[in-house]
What we know:
It contains 7 helices and 10 strands. It has helices at 11-21, 43-46, 62-72, 85-95, 111-114, 165-174, 196-207, and strands at 2-5, 25-29, 53-57, 76-79, 98-105, 123-128, 154-157, 178-183, 188-190, 193-194. Strand 1, helix 1 and strand 2 form a beta-alpha-beta unit. The longest helix is centred in the last third of the chain and has 12 residues, at 196-207. The structure holds ligand LARABZUK. Residues 6-7, 27, 29, 31, 34-36, 56, 58, 80, 127, 133-137, 157-160, 182-186 line the site of the ligand O=C(O)c1ccccc1NCC(=O)[C@H](O)[C@H](O)COP(=O)(O)O. Residues 4-202 form the N-(5'phosphoribosyl) anthranilate isomerase (PRAI) domain.
Amino acid sequence: xxxxxxxxxxxxxxxxxxxxxxxxxxxxxxxxxxxxxxxxxxxxxxxxxxxxxxxxxxxxxxxxxxxxxxxxxxxxxxxxxxxxxxxxxxxxxxxxxxxxxxxxxxxxxxxxxxxxxxxxxxxxxxxxxxxxxxxxxxxxxxxxxxxxxxxxxxxxxxxxxxxxxxxxxxxxxxxxxxxxxxxxxxxxxxxxxxxxxxxxxxxxxxxx
Length: 208
Ligand SMILES: O=C(O)c1ccccc1NCC(=O)[C@H](O)[C@H](O)COP(=O)(O)O
């Protein structure tokens, strides 16, 4: 199972994560209202890290995203807002980078909304709906994913922790399209500072 560790900001903490966990992706939040916001100046420290770097954006402009791609050496763009199909298509055409399109889950999922994104994005990512967009630590009703109708691989997110590993594995057994997990606040000591040992333990439990 692939692992994305999101909301990283400190160079030492990120280096430790890479050394001890080797995540498939490391996420940085470029949304100024987030407690995990990564400012432009941080690229000097974080830009050179040897890991696939995901930039998380909420309804940002193409120009803002392009700037972060250049400065931080992003490999992946996570669209965490209400980005349209046209915008997502333009972004893919202009950058050629891997794209995660996030869908914030409430009480139900309308699969027709996801369909036009299928030829454009590399992965869907399902997260819990909150007004703050992400990093809430809240779990949504995973039963809603059981009739996922596409072959497109997706990542699961929203309140993932060591406590719900058994349920994650149960879902993975039912849905082979679930190829990755996105973790964040349940592994934090403080916003944007992760407990690396706890993440290592989570990875071990998920993969064994
Ligand atoms: O983490 C944030 O502060 C954040 C703010 C705005 C948009 C997205 C954000 N996080 C993106 C992520 O991919 C998180 O990992 C995801 O929301 C799950 O977080 P959590 O429920 O804390 O595990």
